Q: What sequence folds into this?
């Protein structure tokens, strides 16, 4: 790998990924301060989990599998799905609660970082990106294969741990809070 490509790869792994996780945690903090369980509630929390699944699937695939034409299309689909669900989420949430400027700023990071990651991979694997569009001299490779060599196990474990602590557990707590308030409301309506 040439030095420029190595620098771009390292920027994706060691700058973009931590920033992305920090943005996820900051988003959860915003929701906690806003007490979304009392406004947009369970539906918003479920939309957050849908977005996590959409982008998380693409992220795990990019970390574990060889980047080729097939994977680039999977990542494009994940980015588009995440974008559409984000619009749905924001439309729903903004009709039920105020979205402060700080949260909007965090959302802007969460919107752009998946596309930055995809653009970085397209630059690193430009021949396969061109092949997707039927351009260039390389044939598109659609096969799903493990990265050879794979990313270091320490990096993957550290990233998984950070994702668990900064994103998955906080958003699980958010879902639990929203479910608890939703159940209490149903009980009050049923008992009234």
A:
């Amino acid at each position: 790998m040439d030095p420029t490509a190595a620098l771009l790869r390292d920027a994706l792994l060691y700058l973009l990924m931590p920033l992305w996780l920090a943005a996820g945690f900051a988003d959860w903090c915003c929701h906690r301060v806003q007490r979304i369980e009392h406004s947009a509630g369970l539906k918003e929390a479920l939309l957050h989990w849908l977005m996590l699944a959409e982008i998380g699937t693409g992220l795990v695939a990019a970390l574990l599998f060889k980047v080729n034409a097939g994977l680039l299309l999977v990542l494009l689909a994940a980015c588009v799905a995440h974008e559409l669900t984000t619009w749905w989420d924001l439309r729903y949430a903004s009709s039920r609660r105020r979205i402060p400027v700080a949260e909007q700023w965090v959302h802007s990071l969460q919107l752009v970082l998946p596309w930055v990651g995809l653009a970085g991979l397209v630059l690193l694997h430009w021949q396969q990106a061109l092949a997707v569009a039927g351009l260039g001299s390389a044939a598109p490779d659609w096969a799903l294969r493990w990265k050879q060599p794979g990313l270091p196990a320490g990096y993957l474990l550290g990233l998984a741990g950070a994702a668990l602590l900064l994103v998955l557990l906080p958003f699980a707590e958010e879902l639990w809070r929203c479910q608890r308030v939703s159940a209490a409301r149903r009980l009050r309506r049923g008992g009234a």
User: Anything to note?
Assistant: The CA atoms of residues 102 and 145 lie 40 Å apart. The chain has one domain: 3-191.
